[in-house]
Amino acid sequence: MSDLSLLLPEWQGYGIDSAVAAGARAVARLFERTTFVEIDAPDEEVLIVDGAVLGLASIAARLPRALAALNERHPSRLFTIGGTCGVELAPVSYLNAHYRGDLAVVWLDAHADLNTPESSPSGHFHGMVLRTLLGAGPAALVDALPRVLAPTQIVLAGARDLDRDEVTFVSNAAISLLTPPDVVVPDRVAGRIRAAGLTRAYIHLDLDVLDPAEFPDSLVSTPGGLSADNVVAVIRDLAAQFDVVGFSVVEFRPRSADGLTRLAQLLARCGIRIGALAV
Which CA distances in Å does 235 have to 190, 205, 264? Predict the structure, then answer.
């Protein structure tokens, strides 16, 4: 079993604040003894709206580069540090193909990221990435994915700020949605994965799943989130019950003096041992 650590310090999925790119690089420096495969993005770039998506051309140009890096090395487990949630296209679809659909995607995030270009209020791709992974996004991105997800593979955990069209889609597609009070119920997240008959898991950690009163260093801070203890408990429980083959941390937007230190402590407590996290 081979591991790979991937660094995708992009901000274009949000498009109006490049601080998450520096944030991603700062997180990677916590693992100074590990070499990351990096798919870099320019820190300054004029983004245009294409097909109702801000910066689509820039985003689409990096996806084949990331997939090529994965296909060349053929890892079976991935640790990803990303700027925005938009970086998940390559790692999630690659692992979904690698394991032929036996992959639960636990989306620890304040948001569902299930908009389409037509439904998105902002046009920011980081709010469309999970819908694109389901096969309903810009054709330039969907057509490049090795394998799209099925709704039964997704568990939205900690979501509390959904747009109207996302609420409708979650209901119609019967996607598992667990609000913060649901997440803290023991075995609730794991139970949804068992019910779907899946044995492997990819854990997406958008730091805005945390309560900003405890952790303000996320790109889109959203009140009412989970505590660090809650997040650690969920991740450790998943690692104990399933084969966690992918883990990501995204949208670290430095705001406080000790945010990076507290993030390092959280990651150390999660018990995931993939790539840089195992060193």
Answer: 10, 10, 15
Sheet holding 104-108, edge to edge: 37-38, 3-8, 77-82, 243-250, 200-206, 104-108, 154-157, 176-178
DSSP secondary structure letters along 68-109: HHHHHH--SEEEEEESSGGGGHHHHHHHHHHTTT--EEEEES
Using an 8 Å Cβ cutoff, are 190 and 237 in contact? yes
Containing H/E element for 166? Answer: helix 164-173
Express the helix, strand and coil content of the chain in percent, nearest 5 each.
40, 20, 40
The pLDDT of residue 34 is 86
Structurally, how many domains does the chain consist of?
1
Distance from C-alpha of 278 to C-alpha of 253, rounded to nearest angstrom: 24
The whole domain housing 134 covers 3-278
CA distance 240 to 234: 10
Q: Is the pTM of this model over 0.70?
A: yes
CATH classification of the domain holding 199: 3.40.800.10
Spans of the chain, pLDDT less than 50: none
In sign, the C-alpha dihedral spanning 147, 191, 222, 114 is positive
**Residue 29: strand, helix, or coil:** helix
* 84-143 tens-digit pLDDT: 999 999 999 999 999 999 999 999 999 999 999 999 999 999 999 999 999 999 999 999
Strands 176-178 and 3-8: unpaired
Amino acid, res. 56: L
Burial class of residue 71, CB neighbours in 10 A (0-12, 13-18, 19+): middle
